[in-house]
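Subject: Predicted fold for Transcription factor domain-containing protein, 312 residues

User T.R. writes:
Posting the sequence so we have a shared reference for the thread.
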Amino acid sequence: MAETATASAPRPESVPSNPDLICPINPDDIQNRWLNAYVPLPGQEAKNYPTNISQLISRTLKSYALKAIQGRPPPFIHPTHLLLSPISACFILLKLCRVSIDGIEDESVVAEILKREMTRLHEGHTTYSDMELFSTFQAYLIYTMVLFFKFTPPSMDFFRQAMINLQEIACAISRQGLALNSERMVSGRPEREAWHIVEAKRRTLYTMYFLDNVLSMADGLPTYIAHELKGLYAPSSSELWAASVAEWKQEYLIYRREWGVSPFQLDELWPVSSGTDEWLIRRRQERTDQWLKDVDGFGMMLYAVTSCTYEN
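User M.O. replies:
I've generated the structure tokens; pasting them so everyone works from the same file.
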């Protein structure tokens, strides 16, 4: 029987004593992303999702919400972070959703409880520790998805504000680090705890961007390629993400032997610039194949969306 997220979870990891966290992008661009639909920036490229890809994104995010309601973490939450207080409280509150779905509790009451918790998290987020803020980001994202996919949705005004709040929190956690210097050093090897943090942050950030796309489409607004994320690493191998404490060091050495100091980047899935040399295109395709052979369902969904949206 599958364990729930609130039962038998590993102890939460603390922040490493000497983290080498860095932010290789401008986090302010994340916070200001919601403005793009109203005040387009020079160089913005619109994304025109085919209908089947829009459905894929929506159904996948809905499955993440359902997973959370059933007490199981979606693929952007690492098991070692389940007992951080914002996310553990989130899974406890989501038990009310199971009751509501079974028709025992009034849906509007449960939705109001979740919305109040979202307000509390956002109002206090500037006072939280780094790990509390990171967990708050994940919890706020889950609440937003649950309200959108499993309840009679509040007005789009509510979700527009929720996304503005999410992007504000995302900016703050990004500023604290989305990568590690040691990942980029020839002789470097990151601490396991620090690596889990940045990998989970990136996965959560990419999920938020997918939700932003879904909400924008529902609101009749355009969506744009996230150039502000250029340079971030794509999701890692399934073996490294799922490795136990005892297995992680060996799995990282395998991963490092394969990728060196140049792990696969998110923007390698984006359109190739016109005039790109043929050998560079072939090299990108080889790296994409190399990445695909090891990714989990989260990474495969990311690939499916980009490969069916862009013509490379």
